[in-house]
Amino acid sequence: MTAITITIGLGELQLPGELNGTATATQLLELLPLRLLLEDFSGQEKLGRLPARLSTDGAPASSGAEPADIGYYAPSQHLVLYYAEVAAFPGIIPVGRFDAADLDLVRGLPDGTEAVVDRA
Fold this sequence. Notes:
Elements: E1 2-8, E2 13-19, H1 23-31, E3 34-41, E4 45-49, E5 62-65, E6 69-73, E7 78-82, E8 86-90, E9 92-98, H2 103-107, E10 113-119
Antiparallel strand pairs: 1-2, 1-10, 2-9, 3-4, 3-10, 4-7, 5-8, 6-7, 6-9
């Protein structure tokens, strides 16, 4: 696991997290630091479009997500912060977790919130 920090807005909020050792997460680490604009999707997740496709080598064809999971949604090239449970769906690749104590904070972020993902 590799520790990361997700800085929200102008740096006033920092969410600790970690990325796993999958090929997808390893390639994501190579893009850091990464600036994303977060948007809500379906009342269950915040997502930000990545500047490049990530490897899906060794990834499951489909996966679900638990609250506080960090995922990569391969079809649309988005990094996803899940704040609700999501059933298995093709293209979801788990890449890490953020601190579950921050679920309400993530849920309440308005569309267009800037986030910077970097190594801790």
